[in-house]
Amino acid sequence: MNDKTHTPTEPPLLEVRNLRKTFGGRGKTPGAIVAVNDISFTLEEGECLAVVGESGSGKSTLARTLLRLVDADSGAVLYRGDDILRFSHADMQRQRRYLQMVFQDPYASLHPRRTVAEIISEPWQIHAGVVEKSARKARIDALLAEVNLPQHFSSYYPNQLSGGQRQRVAIARALALEPKILILDEPVSALDVSVQAQVIKVLMSLQERRGLAYIFISHDLPLVRLVANKVAVMNKGAFVEAGPTASVFENPRHEYTKSLLASSPMAAEQH
Ligand code: ADP
Ligand code: MG
């Protein structure tokens, strides 16, 4: 009954162990580029883990490896205790609904000849059981409302939308399968500064309402400070430092973190 001490502890929502991904290299130089080098972390429901680091440090490859958009060389990605890297193709297809990704460029990620309604409902073609056909129109409207877009946008095509509106459609599509984890790869970097805040506001309220977990990839340190409870600093494929956002920002231990912070706009604000 009320006996918490005897409840077996549930495995973390996501636990990544010693993940590694190399590119290229044949013959004498196997794995010439170590894009993801021995990365481990955990993510719980409702958390936002930011992954920061310069361009080329391996952030996008990490994201893609977690979703099996590229194959890891080794390591494990445990979703509620099950290693999804070992899943069959069919099992992975089913599992994907719980882990969704939002890409940086909303111009490239939405099909130009599909309406917003078609784009949002596309995941239901594969995962037919998630929303009954008769309920789909109402669900599209509800998803649009969740990302602060009016219902009549459902008949629009992407070229009728601004960058910020497109990215909100991409977020609505990512939510269509009721995921537990959203991987956001530089979700506002391609947007005008003036609309970045709208998209961030949508993401923050979604997280609160749905208890979503985010892996938030960004090089915008002031933004990371605002949205993330944990941060991992990535350099040359490895997490060189990770911890609660406030302590990493206020008391950075690694030289690379210090130099990242020193070159961020925040450094100017603080002094
Ligand atoms: P970030 O997202 O932090 O900018 P990436 O993950 O895109 O970094 O890239 C990390 C490294 O892996 C870079 O050196 C990049 O050139 C390399 N890389 C990424 N994708 C590929 C690929 N498909 N083939 C070969 N090298 C790649
Ligand atoms: Mg990237």
Beta-strand percentage?
15-25%
Radius of gyration: 19 Å
| Tertiary shape | globular
Strand elements, count:
10
Number of helices: 12
Q: Provide the succession of SSEs.
A: EEEHEEHEHHHHHEHEHEEHHH
Mean pLDDT: 92
What does this structure look like?
The strands form 2 sheets. This protein has a 6-stranded mixed beta sheet, with helices on both faces. It is globular, with a radius of gyration of 19 Å. 36% of the residues are buried. Helix content is 36%, strand content 23%. α6 packs across α7 (163-175) and α7 (163-175) packs parallel to α8. The mean pLDDT is 92. The chain has 12 helices and 10 strands. The protein has 271 residues and is α/β, with parallel strands linked by helices. The chain has helices at residues 59-66, 89-95, 106-109, 116-121, 123-126, 136-146, 163-175, 193-210, 221-227, 245-250, 255-262, 265-270, and strands at residues 14-23, 33-43, 48-52, 74-79, 82-83, 99-102, 181-185, 213-218, 230-235, 238-244. Bound molecules: adenosine-5'-diphosphate and magnesium ion.
